[in-house]
Design brief:
Radius of gyration: 21 Å
Number of strands: 8
Number of domains: 1
Strand content: 15-25%
Helix content: 40-55%
Bound molecules: erythose-4-phosphate
CATH class: Alpha Beta
Number of helices: 11
Order of helices and strands: EHEHHEHEHEHEHHEHEHH
Distance between the termini: 36 Å
CATH superfamily: Aldolase class I
C-alpha cells in the first residue's frame, strides 16, 4: 500500500520523506490556506522534494476554468496529479485530462456510485473521505470495501486513495481491504511510528548498557 502525506507543510514533508516513507502528497485548498504562505512557493517546493505523485487541486467549479487551472498546475512538474471535485464538470475535466495522458484525482467521493463514475471518466485516483463519513455516523471503511469489490469485478485501473484518515486504525483497516493508497495527516503517520513498548525497551537497553560501561569504561560499539 502506498503512503501519501495529506499536507502542504514543507517541514513535515521533508521529515517523513527523509525516512523514505512517502510515495506522494495530497493537498487541497484548505491545507494550503492552513500553511498561510504563498501557495505558489509551496507547490514549487513540494513538487521538487517529492518524486511521486503530488495532487494539486483546482478551485474553478466549471469545466473550462478547471481545464485552464489544471494545465497551469501541471507546469509545476510532471508528477502533478490534477485534483478535481466529484461534480459533472469535474468528471468532464477528468475525461479530457485523462485522454491527454494527464493523471487526475477525483476528490470528495462519498459513495460507491460516485467512485464508479469517476473511474469510468478515467480517474487515476478516487478519493473517498472516510473520516467525514464517520463524523456523520456513516461507516467510512465500508465504503472502501464497496469500492474495492466493484473495481475488482471489472478492469478499472483507477486506484483507491483513502482520504480523510483520522487515526492509525483506519490505516490498518484500509490495508486489510487492499486499498491502493492512504493519504495521512502528519499526526497520524507520527502515531504509526510509536509504540510504548518500543520506548520502554530502548530505555532499558540503554540503562543496561550504562551499567556495563561502569564495569568496562573503555567499552565502545
Ligand atoms: C484528501 O485528499 C483530502 O485532502 C483530505 O484527506 C481531507 O481530509 P479531512 O476530512 O481531514 O479534511
Amino acid at each position: 500500500m502506498k503512503i501519501f502525506l495529506d499536507t502542504a507543510n514543507l517541514e513535515s514533508i521533508k521529515k517523513f520523506n527523509d525516512m523514505g516513507l512517502l510515495d506522494g502528497i495530497t493537498t487541497n485548498p484548505s491545507l494550503m490556506s492552513k500553511e498561510g504562505g504563498n501557495p505558489k512557493n509551496a507547490m514549487e517546493e513540494i513538487t521538487k522534494i517529492i518524486q511521486g505523485d503530488v495532487s494539486l487541486e483546482v478551485v474553478s467549479t466549471e469545466y473550462s476554468g478547471m481545464m485552464e487551472e489544471g494545465k497551469r498546475l501541471r507546469e509545476y512538474g510532471d508528477n502533478v496529479v490534477v485534483k478535481v471535485p466529484m461534480t459533472p464538470d469535474g468528471l468532464k475535466a477528468c475525461k479530457s485530462f485523462s485522454s491527454q495522458g494527464i493523471p487526475v484525482n477525483v476528490t470528495l467521493i462519498f459513495s460507491a456510485n460516485q467512485a464508479l463514475l469517476a473511474a469510468k471518466s478515467g480517474a487515476k485516483y478516487v478519493s473517498p473521505f472516510i473520516g467525514r463519513l464517520d463524523d456523520i455516523g456513516q461507516d467510512g471503511m465500508n465504503l472502501i470495501k464497496e469500492i474495492k469489490t466493484i473495481f475488482s469485478n471489472y478492469t478499472f485501473k483507477t486506484q483507491i486513495l483513502v482520504a480523510s484518515v483520522r487515526h492509525p486504525l483506519h490505516v490498518i483497516d484500509a490495508a486489510k481491504i487492499g486499498a491502493d493508497v492512504v493519504t495521512l495527516p502528519p499526526g497520524v503517520l507520527e502515531k504509526m511510528l510509536q509504540h510504548p513498548l518500543t520506548k520502554i525497551g530502548l530505555d532499558n537497553f540503554l540503562a543496561d548498557w550504562e551499567k556495563l560501561k561502569l564495569k568496562n569504561p573503555d567499552t565502545k560499539i
